[in-house]
Write a structure and sequence with these properties.
Length: about 90
């Protein structure tokens, strides 16, 4: 599966324990998102277009209205990267 660099970054943050908070507007449509890392930092390159591509490919999922997290397919798809803090491959 082809995944862009921004999608890969977002998936990696989610694999390390991050989440995507979403806000709904009128008509139950998602209008704004915020990608938050495990440490509470906000990922700047995660926008609504990247979010929609990840959701369409079923790489992220939400259960019962909770924040979006990485799915099992997303975990299998993400390429391993060195973690900045420990130097270990995730």
């Amino acid at each position: 599966m082809n995944i862009s660099r921004n999608e890969q970054r977002v998936l990696h943050v989610l694999a390390l324990g991050g989440r995507i908070l979403h806000e709904r507007g009128e008509g139950n449509k998602i209008t704004a998102i915020t990608c938050v890392t495990r440490a509470g930092m906000i990922l700047a390159n995660c926008d609504l277009a990247v979010f929609n591509r990840l959701r369409r490919k079923r790489l992220i999922e939400s259960r019962s209205g909770s924040p979006y997290r990485i799915s099992a397919l997303g975990r299998a798809t993400v390429r391993p990267q060195f973690d900045n803090q420990g130097g270990t491959i995730c």
